[in-house]
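Please, structure for the following, as tokens.
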Amino acid sequence: MGQPGSIFISYRRSDSITEAGRIYDRLVEAFGAEQIFKDVDNIPYGADFVEYLDQAVSQCDVLLPLIGSTWLSTTDAQGERRLNDPNDFVRIEIESALKRDILVVPILLNGAVMPGPSDLKGDLQVLARRNAAQVRHDPDFHSDMRRLISKLEEYFVSRGLAAAPSPRGVAPLAASTPETKSNNAVLMPAGLSFLGGLMAILLGGAPIDYGIGILLFAAGGILFAKQTWAWGVAVAMQAVVTVICGLEAYSSAFDDAGAFDPTETTLALAIIPLIALMTLGVLLLPGIRRGFR
């Protein structure tokens, strides 16, 4: 505890224990285990929870309350809302941070909404005015965590706090440069797109074939750019090529009398939408999609 850039994860086990574990692991990867506090791993046996949590929060620089769908409504054995209890551990953690002017960033999990002032009691009402971040299910989890980590690192820098080096030599994700973003996942769909474009230009004889070739080359270049919008634009381009070139190949397979008579041109044209369709399938894989977000 107390190292520069330390983060306290506040959560209710009945509400968000699974999400807390994933978020903890991701923050440890970015900042180091010594800087992340999560009660289930750190509270000593026999310690007074109230005193220990208050002291622990006081030594942190950021508190992240994880707010799931039942965070506000969870009740105790008597049917009373747990947040209404001044001795509720989650309430103690958040109020301890608020009264010390520690940065409190509510994390809304999987579509949860921010509670209003009327939903909260006592000093906890101030939480309703804090700007929240979202962390959603896959495939959005990693992009949401990258955004959160980036903002935390910016805050640490602004306060003159040094974040711990990432373990295993992994650079913090906030330093998002084109080199950081690129990975081998983009090579397959971009390469297929370039291959389809090359075949369209070499095998085609009509202006539309050259247009399709240029479109596929452009899609491959967009994929290599690896921007957040690249995935959607490339998917649209591949879909257009699949439809247009597929229809062109289909129409060329029939003679003037309407009889089915495939030619070498037909077979060549059929390869291009097939490559575009393969590229589209690769782009729709969850792992590829997450790499662009």
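Residues 140 and 265 are 43 Å apart (CA to CA). Residues 163-183 have pLDDT under 50 and may be disordered.
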